[in-house]
Design brief:
Mean pLDDT: 94
CATH class of the largest domain: Alpha Beta
Bound molecules: tryptophanyl-5'AMP
Strand order of the largest sheet: 1-2-3
Number of domains: 2
Number of strands: 5
CATH topology of the largest domain: Rossmann fold
């Protein structure tokens, strides 16, 4: 991609609802790192969103801290990007409320993620229904135009755009329509080989786990369920282990061919995948261990991020409050 004339802004959010996993990394985090080179990038640890599933205060605080470490370890540079904790900027929730007065409930009820989460038995709170409205507020409070996310978030991004259009129609052209930036990874499936890899489904490969734990997790993965005997030909197109090899070595076509012709068995293909994942994430795991030795560092990074974004949020909210007719109309002097 060529250098944009003025540095456009990127925002993305990640929930501190569990440890970073392969789906997060391949679907989104890899682009967080790539985009910080060319854009003004802001990344939010969206703890208010995580409250829809994490109901223990101590645990949420710890998971938020841990997620900052994960993001630094994968290569986010706090001198380039702003890392923020969503709840440090209550204006995200304020803008969400303002959007709530614009968004018809039917848009939220037909949202596929909401329907899935309800089927998965996650508490059906009003917060779960309003989740994508807060997500839209997160993005546009920074007037971000690009949003690196996994393909599972396509519907949420479309909804963000609809919300922006509805708001702008009512109050004037205040917000740009954000667009999703995807990696070339599909929605990554979990170790069960069926459902999306997700912290709440408990089917993740956690990239910062110790090597033995990664081995154990990968060896537990479900492969082609129709391949019963070692000599049966495999179907790499339906085998999640084979699919994941695509991202960890240039020889995945040979690996897939080995499975298809039964030259190789599922066990060795899994062993190889585990070792490659371990090696790929080794430098990041080591960096994370080193960073974790300085617990104050995380709060310093978040304070620096907050200082960077505070003027942006103040300016947007002054414009929004003036347009909708609430509060005072000057930018806050905080
Ligand atoms: P979260 O924490 O569930 O996921 C963080 C990022 O990881 C991507 N991802 C995946 N990509 C591919 N395959 C998977 N199995 C997989 N699992 C997760 C997600 O697409 C996401 O990019 N709703 C957001 C959080 C959010 C947000 C925002 C994102 C809140 N506000 C504003 C962008 C902009 C989410 O899914 O988080």
């Amino acid at each position: 991609m060529s250098q944009p004339a003025t540095r456009e802004r990127v925002f993305s959010g990640i929930q501190p609802s569990g440890a970073s996993h392969l789906g997060n990394y391949l679907g989104a985090q890899v682009n967080y790192v790539a985009l910080q080179e060319r854009y003004e990038a802001i990344y939010g640890i969206v703890d208010l969103h995580a409250m829809t599933t994490v109901h223990d205060g101590e645990q949420l605080r710890q998971l938020t801290h841990d997620m900052v470490l994960d993001l630094l370890a994968i290569g986010l540079d706090p001198d380039r990007s702003a890392l923020i904790r969503q709840s440090d900027l209550p204006e995200h929730a304020e803008l969400c409320w303002i959007f709530n007065t614009v968004v018809p409930v039917s848009w939220l009820e037909r949202n596929p993620t909401y329907k899935e989460k309800r089927t998965d038995g996650i508490d059906n709170s009003n917060g779960l229904l309003t989740y994508p409205v807060l997500q839209a507020a997160d993005i546009v409070i920074y007037k971000a135009t690009h949003v690196p996310v996994g393909k599972d978030q396509a519907a949420h991004l479309e909804l963000s755009r609809e919300i922006v259009r509805a708001f702008n129609r009512r109050y004037g052209e205040i917000f740009p329509e954000p667009q999703a930036v995807f990696t070339d990874a599909p929605v990554v499936l979990g170790t069960d080989g069926v459902k999306k890899m997700s912290k709440s489904a408990g089917n993740t490969i956690r990239v910062f786990d110790e090597p033995d734990e990664i081995r154990r997790t990968v060896m537990s993965m479900v492969t082609d369920t129709q391949r019963i005997k070692r000599t049966d030909p495999g179907r790499p197109e339906v085998c999640n282990v084979c699919q994941l090899h695509r991202f960890f070595g240039g020889d995945y076509l040979q690996i897939q061919d080995g499975e298809r012709t039964a030259r190789t068995g599922c066990v060795e293909t899994k062993q190889l995948l585990a070792e490659r994942i371990i090696e790929f994430f080794r430098p990041m795991r080591e960096k994370r261990v080193a960073l974790a030795a300085y617990p104050d560092h995380v709060e310093q990074v978040l304070a620096a991020g907050l200082a960077k974004v505070r003027p942006i949020v103040d300016a947007t909210m002054a414009e929004v409050r003036a347009a909708v007719g609430i509060g005072h109309t000057r930018a806050s002097s905080r």
